[in-house]
Amino acid sequence: MGKFRNKIALYAIAGMMSASVTGAMAASHVATAMNTMGINLAFSNQIDLKDFEAQTGAALTITSNPLFADREASGDLPPVADRIPVDALVVLPIDEIGTYGGTLRGAAGALESGTSEILSWRQVNLVRLDPTNNSIVPDVAKSWSWNDDQTEITFTLREGHKWSDGEDFTSDDVVFWVNDIMRNEELTAAVWGNWAHGGETVKIKKIDDLNFTFIFAAPNPVFLHYLATSGSYFTPWAASHVLKQYHADYNDNANAAAVEAGYEDWKDLFKRYYHKWKDAVTATERGLEVPTLESHIMASATDGQTRNFIANPYYFKVDSAGQQLPYIDKHSERFLENQIWALEIISGNIDQKSQNVSLSDFPLFKENEERGDYTVRLDDGQIGPVLVFNYTITDASKAFAYSNADFRKAMSVAINRPELIEALFLGLANTDQAMPAGVKFATAEDLAFMTDFDMDMANQLLDGLGMTERDSSGFRMSPSGEEFKIFWEYSLQFTRSPEFPLLIADYWRAVGINVLLKEITTEFLREKENLNTLEISMEWDLPFAWNLLAEPTVYSAPWGVGGPVTGAPWAAYMNSNGAEGVEPPAWVVELRETALAFSKSQPGSDAYLELGANMIRLNLENMVIIGTAGAVPQINVVSNKLANVPDWNLNAYRAGFANSQQADQWSFK
Q: How far apart are CA 650 and CA 654, in angstroms?
């Protein structure tokens, strides 16, 4: 075995002699995921540098991207071996050792609108999802260990890991994030996602510069899956060496300096430099001042039309030939109207696009594969657009209907799903209700609940609400004789296609409900959700088993994680023990209590199955989320010029989009 390992080492050294020794020759002599050359891997296609060197029997010579040659020559950057951790993460590329260079081109709707896919190209977290089997593998963290009851998890970081500005990344940056941001109520009024598991905000204990422990109020067996999926966008650290100067707990002059600079107070200024959603920082020029651990860093201030990123010279990964990742030099994000995407894709001007692409465009994309030099894939993992009426709207002329389950059920059965699916989803989707995915407690009856097209039932339910009188145009009036009209403000980010709201509005008009449509920006839509004034929300995305456990609010009030979808005043009441908000009805309290108990249950146990089934029952009986289509294939356009892009088993926001697909080892052929 020793001779074989030495042979591997010689092959590796041959592939590392210079950055130009790549391509076919390197691929044939250096370990890849397709041919590990006998290297034993504990995790997927990656291994720690020390373990790699122990198995090969030789030190791995690290080489740098030629992009940094001038900066290295001038002394602006230290040698690459001094820029990576002592125990860097070695990645065996999916198919072949990559070549440096190129710009990965993408498109989104606007800043803060459909940008999570491109964020996922460069995103890192403590751990990553291995999409081949949904297991958890190390990423920023070198390792972790749980205590016996899974209430505490200790992480070990990589010695010598540095921020993109060259400063050391240590446990202090995680401690600062927990204690001075998450647990600071002035900065974080409501803790998001799994970080408030068990009803209390996570606590942290620093062990030393490389080790720390997260402490939860209840067993949290799904925590790692949360970090690797929908939690992957929200990294549990902050650059304390930069941000402390803006924090009043560390700078006595922080508030005065903020006011002098034209801000309301120190908190207002601090939030310009830190936001849980990283893209909110890189949406302004301040993104240039805040370092990152991601594969690419902001290259220049955005002009609102484009946003550009460049490889991080301090990135913590190398390939099995010793080349520092990422291979691709630059990321380019353009903000385009949804209708323009198709033309740009078939013209070959976008290298990877999936988020918010309409399935109805599949024939066009397929027909133009050769012209655009790309391949169109149909991935699993999506749900069709959903409709969530604002149950807590303060407008009494709407509240009588929106807060009534019979009204919502009428709106559900008034939708002709087979026709809708044929028109918008090429007949490839199911007529499912909005349901969690991949859970054993969801039955066929649950999926079919109130999905049959039944105008007679819809009319009977609406008549039962007292909406029997009609105006001169034939539209139903409220029981008091007033005009009744749904004012549906929507964003194309969530409708997926401009035809969707038009079709739904026609179905509802056919049962006498008037609908006024207006397209608005995603940013404005979220503002109205937070103000409790949006009449219909569409942000809910189907949770998978791990999200359902990790984030109880996904499937209970306010039915969202990044922001409220509906029921925000109810959630405020429950979270403040009645000091704020509006007291919710009994079924909402029961659903929230059920969701919280479910999040503490052991996956697969009898309690887990019973509580999960009860969550579904309460949501369906009250028709919280109206689904339109299920099992919708997700278009994924991938340029044929890209190498090392695996087949995606799952492609959805709550699965982290490309985060699990290791975009840092994608390269151009």
A: 10
How many domains are there within the chain? 3
pLDDT band at 17 (very low <50, low <70, confident <90, very high): very low
35 and 108 in a common domain: no
pLDDT tens readout for residues 594-605: 998 998 888 899
Q: Residue 12's pLDDT is what?
A: 39
Let me know whether 178 and 228 are in one domain. yes
Asked whether residue 635 carries a pLDDT value surpassing 60, the answer given is yes
Q: How far apart are CA 258 and CA 388, in angstroms?
A: 40
Q: Edge to edge, what strands does the sheet with 317-319 contain?
A: 46-48, 89-91, 317-319
The reported pLDDT for the residue numbered 28 is 55
Residue 63's φ and ψ, nearest 5 degrees, are: -120, 155
Give the three-state DSSP class for 413. helix
- The residue type found at 537 is S
The answer to whether residues 90 and 108 belong to one domain is no
Per the domain annotation, does 565 fall within a domain?
Answer: yes
Instruction: Clarify whether residues 160 and 25 are in a common domain.
Output: no
* Dihedral over Cα of 425, 426, 431, 432: its sign: negative
Compute how many other C-beta atoms are within 10 angstroms of the C-beta atom of residue 477. Answer: 18
Using alpha carbons, select from 126, 110, 491, 119 the residue that is nearest to residue 279.
119
Same domain, 608 and 597: yes
Is there a contact between 464 and 406 (Cβ–Cβ < 8 Å)?
A: yes
Phi, psi of 267 (to 5 degrees): -65, -40
Sequence length of the chain is 669
Q: What is the CA radius of gyration of the chain?
A: 26
Cα–Cα distance, 175 to 237 (Å, whole number): 8
CB 175 within 8 A of CB 301: no
Residues 28, 156 within the same domain: no
Contact 634, 652 (CB under 8 A): yes
Q: How far is CA 346 from CA 118, 404, 651, in A?
A: 19, 46, 21
Domain boundary among 308, 339, 371: 308
* Mean pLDDT of all residues in 26-54: 90
Please report whether residue 488 resides in a domain.
yes
Q: 608: helix, coil or strand?
A: helix
Q: Are residues 26 and 126 in the same domain?
A: no
Q: Are 418 and 570 in contact (CB under 8 A)?
A: no
Indicate the residue type of 635: I
Q: Are 414 and 349 in contact (CB under 8 A)?
A: no
In this predicted model, what pLDDT tens digit does every residue of 445-468 receive, in sequence order? 999 999 999 999 999 999 999 999
258, 287, 308 - which closes a domain? 308
In a domain, residue 334? The reply is no
pLDDT value, residue 5: 32
The torsion angle over the Cα atoms of residues 252, 254, 259 and 264, rounded to 10 degrees, is -110
Phi, psi of 381 (to 5 degrees): 115, 25
**Residue reference for tokens 């994030």:** 177
Nearest to 323 by CA among 642, 30, 584: 30
- 644 pLDDT higher than 70: yes
pLDDT at 61 exceeding the cut of 70: yes
Q: Where are the alpha helices (DSSP H) in 276-385?
A: 278-281, 338-346, 362-367, 369-372
Would residue 523 count as lying in a domain? yes
Nearest alpha-carbon partner for 503 in 422, 564, 585, 606: 422
User: What per-residue confidence (pLDDT) applies to 381?
Assistant: 67
Quick check: 389 and 567 in contact, CB under 8 A?
no
Domain region containing 493: 386-627
d(CA 228, CA 136): 7
Establish whether the linkage from the previous residue to 326 is cis, with ω within 30° of 0. Answer: yes
Over the stretch 482-512, which tens digit does the pLDDT of each residue have? 999 999 999 988 998 889 999 999 999 999 9
